[in-house]
Amino acid sequence: MSETGSPKAAKQAERRSLFGWVVILLLPLLMVVMELGVAMVEPRVLSMRNIVNILLQSSYLVVFASAQMVVILTRGFDLSLGTNVSAVSVASALVMTGLVEYNAPAWIVMSVGMATGLGFGAMVGLFNGFFVSWLRINPFVVTLGSLSICYGLATTMSGGRPVFNVPDSFSHLLYDGTLIPGLPLPLTMAIVVCLLLYFLLDHTVFGRALYLIGNNPRAAQLAGLPIRFYLTMAYVTAGMLAAFGALMLTARTSSGEPNLGGSLMLESIAAAVIGGVSLQGGVGGVIPVILGSVFVTMLSNAMNLLEVGGYAQQILLGCVIIAAIFLDRLRVTRT
Predict the structure, then answer these.
(1) Mean pLDDT for the stretch of residues 280-305
(2) pLDDT tens readout for residues 200-220
(3) I need a labelling partner for 192 at 20 to 30 A (CA). Which of 9, 90, 330, 334 fits?
(4) CA geometry: angle at 129 spanning 65 and 147, to 5°?
(5) CA distance 87 to 246
(6) How far apart are CA 196 and CA 188, in angstroms?
(7) The model's pTM
């Protein structure tokens, strides 16, 4: 009997699925308890304005955490996500402002700007994927290197300064426009991204291959899967998702920011891991990522309202990540 079809493997898969449902059920309960506890000190946390703000903020993090999830499923991660976001923001803003100076039509300005951003993100993903899958270099080393490269490109292209005069039509397209009446545009786009990613992971050969590669690389190899190709495409997908999120943030700020990525690398990994995406690979999904992103956003929002210092917030977020990884480690050991 093959390893993937053994009773032991089936039992492990059942336990992992059960753990996923426990996360899905417990995280919302934990968020409610946290908000009620904060509300005893700061009632504004339960105001409708603050709740809407949390949803808007989490819509961006959902996109970035989804990008991180795709590579974590294959037992990797992307340290370059934050600086990739910064470089995409600067590159797309420079292209759009340049076209505006030549009086190009608005639709050309936006189309070329978005294509530039998505293309840049895809190239970063291809770079990471090539070295990870074909040259078999550790993802930590590769993405740490591309983190430095993207940061250098972002600061060099912008001169270390924001790129202003991004067209208002671009902001209207990806930030303050409306697709569904009453629903903020960033939230709408995050929902669309989640639906597309859910279909990709759960209903395509590519998605199933990523789970198998992360869960059992040996079985994936015996099954004849082109592992190197799928690994490369996982990083390309992550790079393009990060680039799309960068375009959303650029539309929000109306400028190309060389420091736009900020702490997104840490926050995206935190959201994915807290949502139950296993660093051991092969475990995770769209719904847990959404819950993890909302949790991280709510935690940050609560600390801001309680006037907790930025450095203290980083300490607490780091502790939460370590706790989530520890729980994941316990789950893996028991399965």
Answers:
(1) 91
(2) 999 999 999 999 999 888 888
(3) 90
(4) 60
(5) 9
(6) 13
(7) 0.92
Strand partners, 163: 256
User: Tokens 């819509």 correspond to what residue?
Assistant: 59
Cα of 313 vs its chain's centroid, Å = 20
Domain boundaries, the chain: 11-37+45-334
Planar angle of CA 241, 279, 124, nearest 5 degrees:
30
**CA distance linking residue 156 with residue 103, whole number of Å:** 26
Q: Do residues 231 and 217 lie in contact, with contact meaning Cβ atoms separated by under 8 Å?
A: no
Q: What is the identity of the amino acid at 267?
A: E
Over pLDDT 90: what percentage of the chain? 67
Amino acid occupying residue 221? Q
Contact 109, 170 (CB under 8 A): yes
How many whole angstroms separate alpha carbon 305 and alpha carbon 299?
10
Contact present, 226 and 215 (Cβ < 8 Å):
no
Do residues 212 and 282 touch, judged by C-beta distance below 8 A? yes
Q: Domain 11-37+45-334: give its CATH code.
A: 1.10.3470
Tokens found for residue 158: 């912008």
Report the alpha-carbon distance of residue 293 to residue 62 in Å, rounded. Answer: 5
* Helix residue spans in the chain (DSSP H): 7-39, 48-72, 81-101, 106-129, 139-158, 168-171, 185-202, 205-215, 217-222, 227-253, 264-274, 286-305, 310-334
CA pair distance 281, 274, nearest whole angstrom: 14
